Structure formats: C-alpha cells, structure tokens
C-alpha cells in the first residue's frame, strides 16, 4: 500500500517553484494534504506592501479541519486590502497543487 503524496513548501511568497515542484510522501496515518495561505504586511506595517505566504504539506484530515475551523472563521476573507489567513484541506495524491489567494 502506497502512502498519500502531497506538495510541500514552507513560507513561499507565491504558488510556483517549490510549492508545485517539491513533493513528500506522507506518513501512513496522514490522510490529507494541506495548504496554509496568508496575506500580510511586511514587518506588520499597516499600510506597507503586502504579500502572500504559502506553506503546504501532509496532515491528518481531523487535524487539518480543526486548524481550518480555528483559522478560517475569523480571518479567511481573501480580500486584497485586509490581512488574512486560510487553511485548506484535501484528500488525494497531489491535491494541494492549487491554492486560493483571492475572493474573486
């Protein structure tokens, strides 16, 4: 039996390069691929330039859904003017290729 395979990256500013090239074989108990996406200002300057921060990897669906419920409820609006963060969970090999970075 082969394990789930997910894309992995850490703190990338876009969804290309490492985030769509590097893959990891999940541990047998990990049944979900995850993506964490945030949009924030550099050095927490309110009016400063903002950028996306993307991390991907493996997790259990239960833990991923818990993280999504904690993070997404107050923060996940994907606007171009507010700071926000979202957790996305999926199942299936390499299902975390795409991430949603805007509401439109």
TrEMBL record:
InterPro entries: Snake_toxin-like_sf
UniProt-listed CDD domains: TFP_LU_ECD_Cold
Name of the featured protein: UPAR/Ly6 domain-containing protein
Species assigned in the record: Helobdella robusta (Californian leech)
């Amino acid at each position: 039996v082969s394990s789930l395979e997910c894309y992995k990256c850490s703190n990338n500013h876009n969804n290309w390069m490492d985030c769509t090239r590097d893959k990891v074989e999940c541990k047998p108990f990990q049944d979900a691929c995850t993506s964490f996406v945030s949009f924030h200002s550099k050095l927490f300057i309110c009016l400063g330039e903002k950028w996306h921060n993307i991390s991907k990897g493996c997790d259990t669906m239960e833990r991923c859904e818990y993280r999504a419920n904690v993070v997404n409820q107050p923060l996940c609006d994907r606007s171009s003017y507010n700071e926000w963060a979202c957790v996305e969970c999926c199942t299936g090999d390499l299902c975390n290729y795409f991430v949603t970075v805007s509401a439109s």
